[in-house]
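Fold it.
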Amino acid sequence: MSDVIRVERTIADRTLSIETGQIAKLASSCVIVRFGDSAVLSTCVRADPRPGLDFFPMQVDYREKLSASGKFPGGFRKREGPPSEKEVLTMRMIDRPIRPLFPDGFIDEIQLQNWVMSHDGENDTDVLAGIGASAALALSDAPFDGPTATVRVGRIHTDDGPAYVLFPTVTQLDYSDLDLVLSGHKDGVNMIEVGAAEVDEEGVLAAIEFGHQAILEILELIDELVEKVGRPEKVIKNPLALPDEDVAAEVKKLVEAELTEARQIHKKSERGERVGQIRKAMLDEHFKLNESGTYGEYETSKKRRDHAREAFRTLEKKVTRKLIVEQGKRADGRAPAEIRPLEMHLGMFERTHGSALFQRGETQSIVTCTLGTGKDEQIVDGLMPEYSKKFTLHYNFPPFCVGEAGRIMGPGRREVGHGALAERSLMGILPSPEDFPYTIRLVSDITESNGSSSMASVCGGTLALMDAGVPITNICAGISVGRFTDEDGGKELFVTDIIGEEDFFGDMDFKVSGTRDGITGIQLDLKARGLVLEQIERIFEQAKQGRIELIDAIEKVIAEPRAEVSKYAPRVHTLNIDPDKIGKLIGPGGKGIRGLQDKYGVQIDVEDDGSVMVSSADRDSLEAAVAEIDVIAAEVRVGTIYTGTVVSTRDFGAFIELAPGTDGMCHVSELADGFVKNVTDVVKVGDTVKVKVILVDDQGRIKLSRKAVMIEEKQGDGEGAESDEEVANA
């Protein structure tokens, strides 16, 4: 067995260790990252490129093996299935900071696999996988310009003020108003994911600075491991897939002027059509396929044509960047901080509980809101303890939204990521379950797309929530900021509300969501090497200006949530009963609660703490069911008047059911205001009567009086008696 090479350091009062040398020796490299009792196995394999490939085919995989926390998978097969949403989001989180650090034109196969081997329930493994993937790459011979490191930062409020916490535990995150995942290297930050409860820009900046200091520590640990193992030579084994210099020069000479003119056409479809015409004419006239010569001549012409196509794309990128940075000319004619024209509509569809259309330029989202009950909550099971989600946002990106006839498939990694960003951004403004006990689902269907459709989902989601009558605590909007630099990198320009081409040709897509009071969500995708704090501070200020402009526009359409939920939404009422009365409410074998549900056509959900949620689309049925539950769970008090049902008669009196499972006895002498010879002369089984509680003895037996109610009514106290009855049946 090979010797284990291990490095470790105390970080956040726990030991972070990275080891290699024992496991998976046939892989290009392998490490195990441990933190607390959590551990992740990360491997890297490098292989030659596949023939005909013209892009970098890096694959990142992250899987949470349930055996890592001593669990069995659910279902009949008892085997892990397709990746969960958490696993998909972690794959994206690992990929994004690593991919830009490979050289342009590098197309070798790189496969990074990350398996959770141990999970202690407190130290989550997603950030450990980010560290492990980077360390595995650092130990390989791949030309990776890293390493990088990934950390999580929380913020907990104490008596001494807010305190930042590195690698917060799952328990600590329950008390944190910030969940920041940060990746970076020695030169700066290159990936940010944030979910926050309206934390101001200064607070988020301080968290980023705090996290980057820890990143530098972890980078030292990875470098120490590499030195112990022996630093591998970074090798480019295969030629980079870059156009030949002579082809690039010829393409520039042929089309630069035309391309510069075409890139200034404001409308996307016309601009794209003109650029396509220039490309086709160039290829057909100057880079024809030689189909009449030898096979070698054909292959040479094909290679030159492919290189010309790639050189055209590179030139288009340079022209676009030059126009923006040097002349301030964006493709659609806007100023750097100008937002595209806005259009918003509410109540798009009659039978949805809430719906809205949000359009910004050529990006359009239709968002629908559905309100449900506790049984509609999504149950999430994994390495963490099982929990239920009361809010979900699903994002759909059909091919027609970009004018294509592509494959119709389920949501991919991009769709899952965009939906998670919008969901995270809106969670910060949702009411508490105590104030609004509904389960909420938003669906954002992107029907046109030309940049920042996830931020359109945030704005459209806010509109749909308000249209549905969800009492959100603030208005939330999202905007993206892009970055462009000149060829030397000495001059940079930040632009607001980037379109698709600016995302494609630019250095970054920095999405920021929030309210007037603070940030609720961030996602940074960066193609350049990194950002420093001063740049992030400028971006935050520009993004804040943009989102406040959007919030102003939203408020002109709807200033606050509708006062009532849709008539088609279920009505939900929550009440609290004594936990000791839960059994009485449910009844033997669930007979009691099923009887109430059948009687009133309602749904009743009961929690162990005595919380009872009653839901129905019919208001009258809901109120009647709530009144009866109140009676069942109430303490029967002397002097209270009830409307009950006679369930049996005896010679000495009648038994009257005040509520399911609660009976009292009315003696024959208390049945009427006068002498009663036979009980059945006054009441019969099935009669509904008003009775007053006159005694509850030590054994809980209830004595009732019909006569007392009759006397009070005769004396003109009927109004007061009615009030008592309303209290008893409320």
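The two ends are 74 Å apart (CA to CA).
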